[in-house]
Amino acid sequence: MPSSPSVAHDPMGHALLDFHHGHASATLTVHSNVAEDEPLPASYLFRTLWEMPELERTALEACQGRVLDVGAGAGAHALELQQRGYTVKALDVSPGAVQVMQQRGVQQVACHDLFDPILHNDQPYDTILMLMNGLGLVGTLDGLEKFLVHARGLLAPGGQILATSADIAYLYEDEEGALVLNLNGPYYGEVEYRMSYKEETGAPFHWLFADASILQDYAEAAGYTVEFLDHDEQDQYLVRLTLL
Q1: Tell me: the pLDDT tens digits for 24-53?
Q2: Positive or negative CA dihedral for 190, 30, 39, 12?
Q3: Which one in 19, 55, 69, 151 has a CA-CA gap of 20 to 30 Å to 136?
Q4: What gap in Å lies between CA 74 and CA 181, rounded to an integer?
Q5: Is 1 a residue whose pLDDT tops 50?
Q6: How far is residue 93's CA from residue 164's CA, in Å, rounded to a whole number?
Q7: Residue 130: which CATH number?
């Protein structure tokens, strides 16, 4: 991979590059089919250890061996793990994010999709790290099933996946607190997003929010043991999936 991949249609990457080069107010807008538009300050992707939520700090403490940091953004987690002496490969589909990580000193960076078969050429990983609701990168329940098979070929024996996700059922509650779901439609945790920055809007992409019980069902069916390590008041949780 060239040391400076070209940045094409990449709102996330442009926002991160602008912030990294001194534009402190650089802010993305997150559009979804389940909620109002929300701002995402680029600065959040550059947070230090003590600015990270407790779930993320717990996940970093649980890392082992060689780490694949998936959806690495500006490299906040990869840099912290490097500082602790871990060998880390940071993965992101955003060419701009890859440039930022290289400029910030992340030693191993790759611009690949999570499912890119080229990852199977790597030495096996002891930990696959998926933070910031990072399990969502699988996109859908079908994608989760596919990923759990794919990850078996990336992990060393006894390797682990450390991932955060959330139950977003609360978005579908009526005024009395009862769930209003279309049982004939897609799983309620399958969300469509777009990112925009300045005048640029990215392509739509799917993101999965998996409730804990459905994740456990899928993971156990794929041959993993499931351990929920932590959760917070926003219905987010940290899970460890370990190869049997």
Answers
A1: 999 999 999 988 999 999 999 999 999 999
A2: positive
A3: 19
A4: 36
A5: no
A6: 19
A7: 3.40.50.150
For residue 2, count other CB atoms closer than 10 A to its CB: 7
* Closest by Cα among 143, 77, 86 to 114: 143
Q: What is the pLDDT of residue 5?
A: 40
What global pTM score does this model have?
0.93
Q: Identify each DSSP E strand in the chain by its residue range.
A: 27-32, 38-41, 67-70, 88-91, 108-110, 125-130, 155-166, 190-197, 200-201, 205-208, 224-231, 236-243
Domain that holds residue 223: 53-189+204-243
Query: Is 173 a member of any domain?
Result: yes
Cα distance between residue 63 and residue 83, in whole Å:
13
DSSP per-residue codes, 60-93: HHH--SSEEEET-TTSHHHHHHHHTT--EEEE-S
Residue 210 tokens, joined: 């998996």
Tell how strand 108-110 and strand 88-91 pair up: parallel
Q: Of 24-38, 43-57, 179-193, 230-244, which range is least confident?
A: 179-193
CB atoms within 10 A of CB 164: 25
Residue 183 included in any domain: yes
Mean per-residue pLDDT, 226-232? 96
For the chain, percent of residues with pLDDT exceeding 70: 92
